[in-house]
């Protein structure tokens, strides 16, 4: 397989731990702002201990997600008091990136898995390679049917789509569904969802469950049927066939202007808007201009899920709430973390399945030929081996 090209055979199939001790797995406390998730939950710990692994969970690692230390102990884990011990393992499972100091706490030759932002965070990737850590980035798991149970981008986007709707509905001064009462009939809320990938489809389904009238749009034509199957109406703005990877590409200025013009009418009528349109590795497309926001009615709420890559709405500020003429624009960057219990459950399962690909009788064997874990491996044997990361860093296609 392509990822193997140039990798010496002797770095494929490194075996550890040594036979005389247990495979050690570390689960550190996530210290990043807004991060409430944890990389293992009692159910996954039970599986790991069932595999004969020794699991160390840092004190309080699961507290914010609703998994107290006691629950981990009951599942067979040891609670360890400090980050140095939690990182001193053969395998470290994390949610977010380790700091450079935390990288130094991981033993050379160990495996570390998490959201590592491997195509952007090049300094971190260099540090992991320099320490001879085998880094598995969940962002690089292939989006294939085989890899579905390991696809953390999907599991977390699904949660985020739900959380965005909850945020919009709780901020909206309008009831989301129709209500027939003695005090009068309340018409249903109107929702608009832009981008119908994993997060967008969950947002549509959630708005529908709340009883709202939903319009939705995506540049990819195949999404029309998916949108309609959830009971929403597809907005007739331009659609373009994309490449075989399923991801959208940037559109030309004329198409973008046409999109903005058509969406303006739907935005003006909407009480709640959730935008999710993203293009991997590129700034998010602007779908709602400042003029369109100015034309929206007071009290309407926008949740721009693309805030961290520039936003789909002119005026969005990442991690902030902006008010424009009575319209509220949210740019949250922590949506999965707001549903930390279930986001952690799903993420922990993704990681369990992913590292399970490398499980052997005596612990873990790095196998770069595995169709899922291989492509997700960014560094191994002291080298940066992922072709997309190498290209992002301006390196030759293959390590020497
Ligand atoms: P994403 O988060 O990268 O983007 C969200 C949506 O924004 C996408 O549907 C995209 O088409 C849309 N978008 C981008 N530019 C746009 C524009 N200018 N106007 C309107 N919409 C725009 O996407 P994602 O949710 O990560 O999914 C990406 C693709 O991967 C999809 O095709 C999805 O079906 C596919 N996927 C496949 C699997 C699998 O086969 N197991 C799993 C997950 C995702």
SSE order and pairing:
Elements: E1 15-16, E2 24-27, H1 42-50, E3 54-58, H2 69-74, E4 78-80, H3 83-87, E5 91-93, H4 100-105, E6 111-114, H5 122-130, E7 134-137, H6 152-171, E8 179-181, E9 184-186, E10 190-194, H7 198-209, E11 213-217, H8 223-229, E12 233-234, H9 253-269, E13 272-275, H10 290-294, E14 301-304, E15 321-324, E16 327-330, H11 340-356, E17 359-360, E18 363-365, H12 373-376, E19 377-380, E20 383-384, H13 387-392
Parallel strand pairs: 2-3, 2-5, 3-4, 5-6, 6-7, 10-11, 10-13, 11-12, 13-14, 14-16
Antiparallel strand pairs: 1-18, 7-19, 8-9, 15-16, 17-18, 19-20
Helix pairs in contact: 1-11, 6-7, 6-11
The protein binds nicotinamide-adenine-dinucleotide.
Whole-number mean pLDDT: 93
Query: What ranges have pLDDT less than 50 throughout 5 or more consecutive residues?
Result: 1-12, 15-20
Span between N and C termini? 17 Å
Number of strands: 20
- Count of helical regions: 13
Helix fraction bin: 25-40%
Bound molecules: nicotinamide-adenine-dinucleotide
Radius of gyration: 23 Å
**Largest sheet, if any?**
8 strands, mixed
**Neighbour order of strands in the largest sheet:** 4-3-2-5-6-7-19-20
So what's the overall shape? globular
The assigned structural class equals: alpha/beta
Strand content: 15-25%
């Amino acid at each position: 397989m392509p990822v193997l090209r140039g990798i010496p055979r002797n770095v494929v199939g490194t075996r550890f731990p040594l036979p005389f001790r247990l495979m050690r797995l570390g689960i550190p406390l996530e210290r990043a702002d807004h991060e409430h998730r944890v990389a293992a939950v009692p159910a996954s710990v039970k599986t790991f201990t069932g595999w004969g692994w020794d699991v160390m969970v840092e004190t309080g690692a699961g507290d914010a997600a609703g998994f107290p230390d006691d629950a981990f102990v009951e599942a067979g884990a040891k609670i360890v008091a400090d980050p140095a011990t939690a990182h001193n393992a053969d395998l470290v499972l994390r949610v977010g990136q380790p700091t450079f100091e935390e990288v130094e706490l991981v033993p050379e030759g160990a495996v570390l898995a998490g959201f590592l932002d491997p195509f952007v965070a090049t300094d971190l990737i260099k540090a992991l390679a320099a320490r001879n850590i085998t880094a598995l980035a969940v962002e690089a798991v292939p989006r294939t049917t085989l890899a579905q149970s390991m696809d953390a981008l999907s599991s977390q986007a699904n949660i985020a789509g739900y959380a965005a709707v909850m945020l919009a509905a709780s901020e909206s001064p309008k009831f989301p569904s129709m209500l027939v009462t003695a005090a009068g009939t309340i018409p249903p809320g109107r929702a608009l969802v832009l981008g119908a990938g994993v997060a967008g489809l969950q947002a549509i389904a959630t708005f529908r469950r709340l009883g709202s009238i939903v319009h939705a749009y995506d540049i990819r034509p195949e999404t029309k049927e998916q949108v309609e199957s959830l009971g929403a109406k597809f907005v007739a703005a331009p659609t373009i066939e994309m490449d075989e990877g399923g991801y959208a590409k940037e559109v030309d200025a004329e198409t973008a202007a046409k999109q903005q013009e058509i969406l303006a009418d739907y935005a003006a009528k909407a009480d709640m808007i959730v935008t999710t349109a993203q293009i991997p590795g590129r700034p998010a497309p602007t779908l709602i201009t400042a003029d369109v926001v100015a034309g929206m009615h007071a009290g309407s709420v926008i949740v721009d899920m693309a805030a961290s890559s520039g936003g789909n709405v002119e005026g969005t500020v990442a991690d902030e709430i902006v008010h424009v003429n009575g319209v509220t624009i949210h740019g949250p960057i922590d949506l999965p973390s707001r549903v930390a219990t279930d986001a952690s459950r799903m993420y922990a399962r993704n990681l369990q399945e992913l590292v399970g690909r490398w499980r052997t009788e005596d612990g873990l064997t790095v196998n770069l030929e595995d169709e899922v874990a291989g492509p997700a491996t960014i560094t191994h044997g002291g080298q940066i081996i992922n072709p997309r990361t190498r290209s992002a860093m301006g390196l030759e296609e293959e390590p020497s």
